[in-house]
Input
Amino acid sequence: MRCKSRPAEDQPSMQSLISQVRNEIARALVIAIGEDARGVDPLVKPATDAKFGDYQCNVAMSLGKTLGRKPRDVAQAVVDGLGDSTLFEAPEIAGPGFINLRLRTERLSTSLEEVPSIADVESDRLGISLVTGEERRRVIVDYSSPNVAKEMHVGHLRSTVIGDVIARVIAFQGHEVIRQNHLGDWGTQFGMVILALWHLCMRKHQGESVEDFQGVTAKLTDPTLDAEARLSLLKQRARIHQDNLNRDPTGDVEFHPYLTALEPSFETLLPLYRYVSAIEKAAKGLSDEALLIHNSETGQSQHLSELSRYVAAMLQGKTDRSNEQERAAWFKAKEATLVVCSGIYRQLGVLLEDGDICGESFYQPLLHEIEVNGERLPGVVDEVKLILAPPGKEADGMRAVCREDQGAICVFLEKPDGTPCFKGPEGDALPMLIEKSDGASLYATTDIAGILYRVAHATENPVQLHIPRLREQLATLGGGLGADRVIYVVGAPQKLHFQMLFPTAHATGWTRKGDRSVQLEHVAFGSVLGEDRKMLKTRSGDSIKLKSLLDEAVDRARNLVGDMQKDPNRTTDLSPEEVENVANIVGIGAVKYADLCQNRNTDYVFSWDKMLAMQGNTAPYMLYAYARIRSIYRRGAESAPFDADVRNASLQLNEPAERDLALAVLRLPDTIDAVGEQLMPNYLCDYLYGLAGKFMVFYENCSVLKAPDAATYASRMRLCDLTARALRIGLSLLGIRTLEKM
RNA sequence: GCGCCCGUAGCUCAGUUGGAUAGAGCAACGGUUUCCUAAACCGUAGGUCGCAGGUUCGAAUCCUGCCGGGCGCGCCA
Output
């Protein structure tokens, strides 16, 4: 409920500690040095060691240099400028010119006392203020990106989990967040799914079951199979394909009626898709007449390994065939996949919903199209060609030039002196291809169109487009999202792609929004490795399915809880329902936390034992810390109620453990801001681990329920409550629910 | 060949963008329970931050060159 009598600035809010310190120092700097010092970065950091205080200011060393004064003298001048601060104790100058700052303990207690007592657990933000006005941005977070007709595997885990944290953190700061799931639902994918469905339809003529297709797939992917046997198998499959095609060359007799009635399930679609994929991979590069499939209807022949690409091109309007049924079937296949993905998102506890799906196919209207009469309807590539026509446009310190090369439409990125920014293996310039020589679109084409859609806005960013059709198509998509920041959570191997994509996008000028530029950021991450330090695979060499990974995590957590329950020393006992809940939250939380607590840039080694350990920087440890606090709370409520005396208690931070814990709680907003800027979820994990550690020390040294007096009891109870809330908020930003008991 | 990322304790990893004596967890050794959850806590030991130069008051961090590992490099996504 809004409280209209109180102006916004008087709302109790937990202000960023470090910015308060910075402001004080900045003010002192102007007093000490004069107006020249206005705007100088005060170089305030958390102290490297508790004995140096809480924060340190390193500005004297750098300023001493530029001013030609002794750093210690500059430090003294800054300290004099601070005067009697209400924020710090008397600062100390140390070493070459460090200014050590220790916050007044009263300041810590009053800051925490201002935090409103909790009203609604779900919307609790510990009084941390929201960004408003100019500061508030519209941010798109593009993550997860599964593919149609494929199962999600561990490779999707990191994008999904990291992207979700980024979306949550930025939304918590108060920005407008648009989550987008860039589903792989176009291009070759499309062709492969339709081919799979075609096999599913025609298999009856050979009397083959889905299992038979699986058998062929297994043989083709068997590394021990010799080349001759593989070729012979491929020839046999090619013959079957040819027979089936001859039976129904237009698709009108059998295939289209089949598609119209189709209700595909993911379980039947998947093996057929794998079959198509295995056939094409095995046949690639083999030149043999017997691997050519001839279509009597079109008079054309296609190599076995090129079939899906041909089908995809055909269905994308490159031929004059009607393809309504295929598109409808494609849509159904997509739906079947999404049901499975949604299940995983629910189990994983991520925010992505069906409404966040904005896959590759969504941007197709912005791409060029070939009409039935062969006329080219221009699209985004034509627009780029116009804007970046030689001599091109400057952006990010390079020059982007769009021109045709070897029949393909390319964007070349060059340094100011004309040398290429990117090179291929022969040392020749490596362009970004945005249209293939056969006129088809690529990954980069969709991404360029995606940027246009995400960045343009009818009123906020009215991008001027030269191609009237592109303008119209954009309008049919609503005119664009008008983003201020677009974040791509995509694996590190695609770094080169984004290094070419972003400067190209900036060169078009679309990303200039008002007086600033839209931020395009690639949040790269390393691979998940097995204990053998190679990409995590099953023993048979397949990538591990996300679903089975999550199920195993819950199973392992359940066993762990079961073992703990048998311990006679334990004071808590859990009902079967509670055990199941603990197993779910601990198991899934462990998988997510293990991923998030690692610096995302590096590969990480997946280890069940480490992620489920109770000690160290793990989800179980963090959840245990929270459960311990809640246990105190429950017991306290029995004997000494958590009433107004506690909610309004003044905080007494006399013990070092109490003060350390209070300071840690107050650092939450700084941590959230750091994650929002640098997009590093492990900073938040580090913070929470530190906070939990501080609580453990407090727990061992400062008894709450047996506090020496009522005032200390109330103060410690309140500190426990604040700590629990900080942990709960932090974990919820990581997408991990907390447990009252475990 | 070129580009990107990485190399930190026996192992797995932090290190908030240049700060003081480089930190955790595991493994090893020692201690803590009539006391709010011992799934915990405290302590000890363990380092030429791959190597060699350079930049400066100050480098794990920035620059150069090597060595070792991973990934990427035109019509796939």
